[in-house]
UniProtKB/TrEMBL annotation:
Name assigned to this protein: Thioesterase domain-containing protein
SUPFAM superfamilies: Thioesterase/thiol ester dehydrase-isomerase (SSF54637)
Pfam short name (any one): 4HBT_2
CDD domains linked: 4HBT
Keyword field: Hydrolase
InterPro entries, alphabetized: 4-hydroxybenzoyl-CoA_TE (IPR050563), HotDog_dom_sf (IPR029069), YbgC/YbaW (IPR006684)
Coiled coil: none
Domain of life: Bacteria
Family: Belongs to the 4-hydroxybenzoyl-CoA thioesterase family.
UniProt organism field: Acinetobacter soli NIPH 2899
Length: 142
């Protein structure tokens, strides 16, 4: 499962060298991640309503080439793991050329809101949402 968003880099995201400040790459990842989570109706509001928070516990960014002001980028988020945690991989491309600019991943775990305990397995609601999505989006045969 994956999702993509196109973003035009705003001026307030670049530094004095006209390159996106390194911390904003995680913001771009998050925008794509939210679109991915929306696909199976389990974004942050639904997570909280189901009794769980999903904090990011790990993030990694590999800066391949700098992104500049007004550059249009395509950010792809790919769900890679979900049984014990959410691991989402990201790739940022130049929207015009398709050149890969950045890649990375984030890892999130479920935390029970009431007990504040970290879950060692993803909660049942996540599997229900993923299965419901899969029921309407069967895999294409090659």
């Amino acid at each position: 499962m994956q999702a993509e968003v196109i973003i035009e880099v705003p001026f307030h995201d670049v530094d004095a060298m006209n390159v996106v400040w390194h911390g904003y790459y995680l913001k771009y990842f998050e925008i794509a991640r939210c679109k991915l989570l929306d696909q199976f109706d389990y974004n942050y509001r639904q997570m909280q309503a189901s009794g769980y928070l999903w904090p990011v516990i790990e993030s990694h960014v590999k800066y391949v080439q700098g992104i500049q002001f007004q550059q249009k980028i395509r950010v792809r988020a790919i769900l890679k793991e979900w049984e014990t945690r959410l691991k989402i991989e990201y790739v940022i491309f130049d929207n015009e050329t398709g050149q890969r600019l950045t890649k990375g991943y984030t890892t999130q775990v479920a935390v029970d809101i009431q007990s504040k305990a970290m879950c060692f397995q993803s909660p049942k609601i996540l599997f229900e949402r993923l299965n419901a999505w899969a029921d309407f989006h069967p895999l294409k045969e090659s």
